[in-house]
Specification:
44% helix, eight-stranded mixed β-sheet, 16% strand
């Protein structure tokens, strides 16, 4: 089967009664593998901003078919992304993979998740049928709980803005209290009470936008997700690629967690010096050296 690689095929996948809209890009020759890409947090579309197209083009040149979908309530997809925690996103990803794989039968299928999408692809691999997913790639995907990752990002922000050690200590304590509420499944009213009491100390975290009930409900779902059991049960090859200077994902803690949990025979780790959350150096748009090459080599290795 041959297609013009610049013209995507429209896809529709159904997950839990919701229709998800996506696209499949197929290389000019017979594809060697299929990679289904899942975006990061928030109302992300199938391109995840401008990130996925810049990864997709080199993949197509290497003979790898690529598919991705709009999140619920984004672009052409039904539903609402505010109602989709990690497990529901993983079910959506598997539905999308099935839809895309039907167009390129007989090739190995892998998944790629950026940032929050890293949790999604690990959960999807855990619940997938035997042989449904051949390999997994996480890009800046935290291998720790949401509270740990958010605490890390908040601390990095405080490095820049804290006026004194005492201010910093109070802000860190408030952030810890905020995430403790989320992990405990607290109500929206309980969260609002904390914000009323310690709003000034949470200002850098909330950025002037207190979560409404739907967003808080999603945050509680995310805070409850633990990637560790999924990583321990992983039975397919995994590439986890990080930026050494990522201000959002705790790279060192994630690498440590992956090494402790994932079978070393299955795990490939890559930490790119100087790269940030979107795998570029500060002030630059192009990916850090080795990012695309590592992804393509991994997919080709595990598509044989």
């Amino acid at each position: 089967m041959k297609h013009e690689p610049t013209v995507p095929l429209p896809l529709v996948a159904r997950s839990g009664g919701v229709a998800l809209a996506g696209s499949l890009w197929v290389p000019a020759g017979d594809p060697l593998a299929l990679l289904v890409m899942h975006p990061g947090s928030g109302p992300a579309d199938r391109d995840n901003g401008d990130l996925f197209p810049r990864i997709r083009t080199p993949l197509l040149r290497a003979g790898i078919a690529v598919a991705s979908f709009d999140k619920r309530g984004v672009g052409g997809s039904e539903g609402s992304w505010l109602e989709a925690g990690i497990e529901r996103q993983a079910a959506d990803l598997l539905a999308g993979l099935g839809s895309a794989a039907a167009h390129v039968p007989g090739v190995p299928c892998g998944t790629f998740g950026h940032s929050e999408g890293g949790w999604v692809v690990v959960d999807a691999a855990d619940r997938a049928a035997l042989g449904e997913i051949a390999f997994v790639i996480t890009s800046a995907g935290p291998a720790v709980r949401a509270g740990v990752a958010e605490r890390f990002a908040s601390t990095r922000t405080l490095d820049r803005i804290a006026r004194s050690d005492a201010d910093r200590a109070r802000a860190e304590a408030a952030v810890d209290a905020f995430f403790a509420l989320a992990e405990a499944g607290a109500t929206h009213a309980q969260m609002l009470a904390l914000v009323d009491e310690r709003g000034d100390e949470l200002a850098h975290l909330l950025e002037g936008d207190v979560p409404d009930e739907r967003l808080w409900s999603l945050f509680v779902q995310l805070a409850a997700f633990d990637p560790l059991p999924r990583m321990r049960s992983l039975r397919v090859p995994m590439l986890a690629i990080f930026g050494a200077d990522d201000a959002l994902t705790p790279t060192a803690a994630s690498v440590e967690a992956l090494r402790a949990a994932v079978d070393p025979a299955l795990l490939q780790l890559a930490v790119l010096p100087g790269a940030g959350h979107r795998m570029a150096h500060a002030g630059e748009h192009d990916f850090a050296a080795g990012y695309l090459e590592t992804i393509i080599a991994f997919v080709l290795t595990h598509s044989r």
